[in-house]
Design goal:
By secondary structure, the protein is mostly helical. It has 17 helices and no strands.
Length: 320
Amino acid sequence: MESSSLKLAQGFLKDAQKASKGSWFSKPEWDIAAQYFDKAATAFKAARHYEEAADCYVKASDAYVQINAVYLAAKCVENAATLADTHIKDHEMAVSHYSRASDLYRSQGAAADKAAEMMESAAKVCEDIDTNRTIQLYDSALSIYENEDRGRFGVETFKRTIRYLLDKGRLSEAVDIQMRLSAVCEHVNNRFELNKSNLSAIIILLAFGDSVEAGKKLEEFGQDVAFTRSKEAAAAERLVQAYSDGDQDEYVRIAGDQPVAFLDTTIARLAAKTRIPGARRLEPRVSEKQVAHGGEHNAVGSDAPFINNAVDNDDDDDLL
């Protein structure tokens, strides 16, 4: 099967090269060349010659551009990117092809969502390799959604970006993206997501140790009457107050309530692990049965609390 596919691919490639060169008396036949390069790529892929397949997809893309078939050009280079990522394992090639596909989809005029999707795919390729580049690629995807007024379709990409930033401890940047998500939700009148996003922003700021900015944001959000009537607003206000009072017990109790617990898992976990600087440590909750059996140590939770920048150096809990 692979042998026959390889012979077929080589035949298609030969026809494609012939059509793309033209002659002294004729111009290149790009429409024919594009189709043969595309067929050659498919056949090479079936034969498991992935590098040749990716190369033919790129050449097919270039040929489609020559005849202004931009969407088909974008699709071909997207296929090349997928091969580079999943089979060739060339991350640099994959990012380059995904970026090129994004540019082509966007220039096509009616495929902004696909353009953003390509940048997100490029970001995913880099997640375990280059943090800064990953953030830049995610930001490019978000900017496409924003600039093309397609923000309502990018909510999950915003959330994924925020999760990535939190996992990497980039809280300041996470706040910025969270505020951009709030702006998008407000613009499209997505009240459900807006209330959650506002509360999430407050939680991240408090985890970062910036209670002053959290208070300012809460006051800013308070200009929205609909938000002030929400459960998320009440939770945000109580969290800021508990943080200001240095009441760790109350903060943890609020973090366990539904408005916080029903947020994105990463945000909810962040709230549960946030430590208030200078607050006393939480005492383990011991039941009478545990005391009777001498199992007091079993009452301590396994999750270490989150320490923000203001916590003393002698605190031995893990950083996020």
